[in-house]
Design goal:
The protein is mainly beta and about 375 residues long. It has 5 helices and 29 strands. The chain folds into 3 domains: about 70 residues, OB fold (Dihydrolipoamide Acetyltransferase, E2P); about 130 residues, Glucose Oxidase, domain 1 (3-Layer(bba) Sandwich), CATH 3.50.30; about 70 residues, Roll (SH3 type barrels).
Length: about 375
């Protein structure tokens, strides 16, 4: 039987999910192996150094740089507040003194008698990393983070924006081909993760943001609208750090594309359950997929693990087309011809015979296929 290895997109009803939760720099890990966590459990924390400000004390007080240290009224590492007098010149016969006030809250980090400058440091910025999803701690990296393991449904999209969010999953449309409209999104949907159908507009997204929706999953979206929301054209850089309100995950592609029936049905079957959503995406080397994780409420049940061999497309494999003219379409592999086939571009490539959901059959280059793991 012929096989072809391709990128894989996971749509799994019950699988083992492993998430690594790490600090941006060394700090404190608050849990140990075996601890059970919820999505909002703080697993590790640290403090980022605050911004620094340079003050030319010699210039401000009209003194020589070597005289600056003796004019300082605070010690190194001493806390200071905005408006506090931190330096004072000696004046003439004790009169005509000049004073210098701190422009920030923070500490005095350094004083130089060479340059006559003082360095003030703003308070450190606290950073906390939560668990993101419920589960069990299986590994602890000292001062760095933890690894969490859980079992549940996993749905990956092809593109997302916005970072991590979570909420109760709610299916708003009645079919995977319906458009999600602003009228469908109500006040009760605040802090929820909404599942739409084939499309939503920029106005609908902005309405959801005003309501306070945590996340939106849609089959398609307009590329121009996406650029307007971001404020720049989407390139190949990683997404996920945008402060746009709801996380947005596109499961099929740009334009009005019905959500794959299998994806829609899996999400619908989990309506009313807690879901963690992350729009982070990287579409070049080191692929990062946007995802929806729905931790299982059942302790028992079949777990679908996946291995590298699962990425091998064979007869009957469920696939998605990832390039025009059939971009976003889902179908099954009927056959994988061994011989090379000449395409319209006159290039010779390996192809697959694909039967789409509507019964149509097309010959598609294998490089244009993406495996759907279910």
């Amino acid at each position: 039987m012929s096989r072809s290895y391709t990128p894989g997109l996971k749509i799994l009803a019950r699988t083992k999910i492993i998430k690594k939760r790490q600090l941006p720099m060394k700090g404190n890990v608050h849990l140990k192996i075996g601890d059970i966590v919820k999505s909002d459990t703080i697993v590790a924390s640290t403090e980022l150094p605050g911004n620094v400000q340079m003050l030319n004390v010699a210039n401000k007080l009209n003194i020589e740089p070597e005289n600056v240290p003796e004019c300082m009224l605070v010690e190194l590492d001493e806390s200071i507040s905005k408006g506090q007098i931190i330096a004072e010149s000696k004046g003439i016969f004790g009169m005509f003194k000049s004073q210098l006030k701190s422009p920030i809250d923070g500490t005095l980090a350094n004083v130089s008698e060479i340059t006559g400058q003082a360095i003030l440091s703003e308070p450190p910025i606290p950073v906390e990393v939560d668990a993101y999803t419920s589960g069990t701690i299986t590994e602890v990296d000292d001062e760095e983070g933890v690894t969490i393991e859980t079992v549940g449904a996993l749905v990956q999209g092809i593109l997302g924006i916005g970072g991590e969010n979570h909420g109760i999953l709610e299916v708003v449309t009645t079919s995977p081909s319906d458009e999600l409209t602003a009228e469908m999104i109500q006040e009760k949907h605040k802090n929820m993760v909404l599942v739409g159908g084939s499309f939503l507009t920029k106005d609908t997204f902005e309405h959801a943001s005003k309501i306070g929706v945590a996340g939106i999953v849609s089959g398609g979206f307009d590329y121009t609208d996406l650029s307007k929301i971001l404020g720049y054209s989407l390139g190949v850089a990683i997404t996920g750090s945008e402060d746009i309100g709801p996380s947005l995950i596109i499961t099929e592609g740009f334009g009005r594309i019905s959500m794959a029936v299998r994806t829609y049905e899996l999400l619908s079957s989990n309506a009313g359950k807690f879901a963690a959503i992350n729009g982070s995406t990287q579409i070049r080397a080191g692929v990062i997929r946007p995802e929806i994780i729905i931790p299982s409420e059942r302790e028992n049940g079949e777990i679908r693990d996946y291995e590298e061999a699962d990425l091998a497309i064979t007869d009957g494999s469920l696939i998605r087309i990832i390039r025009a003219p059939h971009f976003g379409k889902v179908g099954k592999v009927k056959s994988l011809p061994a011989e090379l086939t000449k395409m319209e571009s006159e290039t010779l490539v390996r192809v697959a015979e694909i039967e789409f959901e509507n019964g149509e059959i097309e010959i598609i280059p294998r490089a244009n296929l993406e495996m759907i793991l279910t």
